[in-house]
Amino acid sequence: MAEPSTTLSPASSPEAPAGRRAGIGDALRALELDTRMVGMIGALAVVWIGFDILTGGAFLTPRNLWNLSVQTASIAVMATGMVLVIVTRNIDLSVGSILGFTGMVVGVLQARILPEIWGFDHPLTWVVAVMAATAVGGAVGALQGAVIAYLGVSSFIVTLGGLLVWRGAAWWVTTGQTVAPMDGLFKRLGGGFEGAIGAGPSWAVGIAAILLSVAAILMTRRRRAGFGFPVRPLWAEGVVILLVAAAIAGAVMVVNSYPLPIPVVRRMMEAQGTSQLLATDGGLPFVAHGFAIPVLIALAVGVGVTFLSRRTRFGRYVFAIGGNPEAAELSGINTKRVLVMVFGLMGALCGLSACIATARLNAATNANGTLDELYVIAAAIIGGTSMAGGVGTILGAMLGAMVMQSLQSGMVLLGVDAPMQNIVVGLVLVAAVYVDTLYRRGLK
How far from chain centre, in Å, is Cα 401? Predict the structure, then answer.
């Protein structure tokens, strides 16, 4: 839930002085765009263009952008939960370790336990694995939340201890052994050509997303008008709809511009019995990757957590606790139970991210998720979540995850060493907190 917008529509805002035409500033105010979100999108554009220039055009290619989206998915999923944790004036330093622990549990489950029950490549293996990961992660998160809420131990100390405990537990699951390979259907959760849905389904997803976005914008307008709140003028509403539709359509065109490798297409054609097209590579059709399954999972989680935070009693309680914990408790909110639920949700999302990360590697390792807590916290803060609590947006955190992964991807393309990458990420995190401090001072 973002802070309530204080921008007035032209119908309720002071009219411009007589004889003065409405300028660009008036038009921007009518659009009611979130200035912090616009600034973040602008910063992301600067990062992309800068790396594209430095890498000689290797960054802004369909291949790199597609891989970038897949690499961002796991961090973005956890960042949505971290927003709610930080909004309640807490922190979770254990998310990377929980991911590693649940990933090892899932690996052992599908590679050693379930095959003894119903054999390998059973169609339910991946379903049971995902359910087990979210359940184990949720239980771990709820346990930490209970210690924080009912025993009164600082979330920093509890989750710092969790960082060490669950990293050690990940090692003890298999005494440090790597578990591989994963179930065939489970591997699709990690992306790759097996985990891409293709051009046609991608356009179907894009069109559905546009329609849902338009419906949400119009429903919000109708709701605000029904309560007598100021609304955007119709032309501004149309501009916002066009911007959203253009962004979604552009994303679909990018993922559909990245073709499957020729050997993969050849195998597909052979499987379909179209051997007459295989005489030369030129006879092979262009087959697009389309959206990757982990990206769709991350988007679905983002929509779900956004709805949870904006449209449910639980979400209102979370932001009320972050705004003023004492007042929230005096108003009758069971703050302890809400905190347990918040940390339980964070743990469940870590379990889901563990499935994505493990499937992408096609192996479960005890080192999986190392330093992910840094990227997740940085993504939430860069996305506008205030360390002071009470303020944060899910979309902002997901964009923050994209910014963090873009920095890492660009530095990899430039051949920057890993220690220097960590230095850059740390500096960006400190800068983001400083910007948030300046922003909050400006609101006072």
Answer: 6
Burial class of residue 245 in the structure, from the number of CB atoms within 10 Å of its CB (0-12 exposed, 13-18 middle, 19+ buried): middle
Q: How far is CA 338 from the centre of its chain?
A: 22
Q: What is the largest CA-CA distance in the chain?
A: 81
How far apart, in Å, do the first and last CA atoms of the chain sit?
20
Quote the CA–CA distance of 75 and 52 in Å, as a whole number. Answer: 23
Written as six digits, the tokens of 378 are 């940085």
Same domain for 186 and 274: no
To the nearest 10°, the Cα dihedral for 180, 181, 187, 191? Answer: 70
| Alpha helices by DSSP H, 109-183 | 114-118, 125-151, 155-174
Give dist(CA 222, CA 216) in Å, integer.
Answer: 10
What does the pLDDT read at residue 286? 85
What tokens does 220 get? 């919000």
Spatial contact of 111 and 181, defined as CB atoms under 8 Å apart: yes
CA dihedral 388, 97, 362, 288 (to 10 degrees): 0
**Same domain flag for 226 and 210:** yes
Mean pLDDT in consecutive groups of 10 residues from the start of the chain, 444 residues: 39 42 62 77 90 93 94 96 96 96 94 88 91 97 97 96 95 89 90 89 96 92 87 87 94 94 82 58 78 96 94 94 91 94 97 95 90 91 87 92 92 89 84 76 64
Contact 366, 171 (CB under 8 A): yes
* Residue range(s) defining the domain that contains residue 271: 197-291
CATH number of the domain within which 370 lies: 1.10.3470
d(CA 37, CA 399): 9
From 41, 31, 33, select the one nearest 383 (Cα to Cα): 41
Alpha helices in 152-292 (DSSP H): 155-174, 199-226, 234-255, 262-271
The whole-model pTM stands at 0.89
